[in-house]
Amino acid sequence: MLRRVFLTLGLGTAALALTGSLALAGTLENIKARQKLVVAVLQDYPPYGSMGPDMKPTGIDIDVATQIAKHLRVGLELVPVTGANRIPFMQTGKVDIIIACLGKTAEREKIVTYSNPYIGEYNSVFGEESAAISRPTDLVGHSIGASRGGTEDLEVSKIAPAGADIQRFEDTASTLSAYATGQVDLVATGTATAHAFNEKSPRKLFVKIKMATEPAYVGVPKGDDEMKNVINQTIAALAKDGTLAEIAKKYLGDASAVDIAN
């Protein structure tokens, strides 16, 4: 019995030592130790991340995550997140990195280290083709849907004058649903999202006001330059061999989205 107690204590101590070493190690070291890359991805933001007809994750970010895991020669685990919780998931160690259409903002740069961009698009205000809107002042009297906390939310908040009604929703699916059902007149989102939406919805999205170029970056833990450098090397290799262009063409029908990012 006594031997069993000592054995249990020994195993517990070893487990604690392993856990502690993983906690102290860098992201790359942890990934290699477990032989698996754990990535935060969106499931409500086509064509970056969504559930396919086979109920498996699909999209630009899923393909990029797959390529990075392949480059690291490890397995891949995809963790579904929202725009609001993707950074907290990484901060609390639930994921190693974020590949979830992550845009760059001054506030985020305080808590996230960014890779080089891997793809890009334009954030715009979209509406019906007949909507007489071409400049910010035209937004007065109109409701605009935006996903709370996203870069498109920040951009439209900058340009919207008093009298414009910005309605914020918790995720992209809710924002687009509000537009599809006529709950809002306009939507602030990216060109890729609008492209995917138009393939399924009878109420189409047309560019009304182009706001800003929006490259997407991989987010790594703040200050982890080792992981950032590995990601950047992979992105450069994928750009050089044409893989990123193939991904852009597959989901956007246009390989130039890679050029916007660089």
From TrEMBL:
Cellular component, GO annotation: periplasmic space
Q: Where in the cell is it found?
A: Periplasm
Q: Which residues cross the membrane?
A: none
Which stretches make up the Solute-binding protein family 3/N-terminal domain?
36-255
* Keyword terms of this UniProt record: Signal
Which residues are the signal sequence here? 1-25
For this protein, the record's Pfam families field holds: SBP_bac_3 (PF00497)
PANTHER family linked to this entry: AMINO ACID ABC TRANSPORTER SUBSTRATE-BINDING PROTEIN (PTHR35936:SF37), MEMBRANE-BOUND LYTIC MUREIN TRANSGLYCOSYLASE F (PTHR35936)
The entry's family comment says:
Belongs to the bacterial solute-binding protein 3 family.
Name used for this protein in its record:
Extracellular solute-binding protein
Q: Give the source species.
A: Rhizobium freirei PRF 81
Task: Provide the taxonomic classification.
Answer: Bacteria, Pseudomonadati, Pseudomonadota, Alphaproteobacteria, Hyphomicrobiales
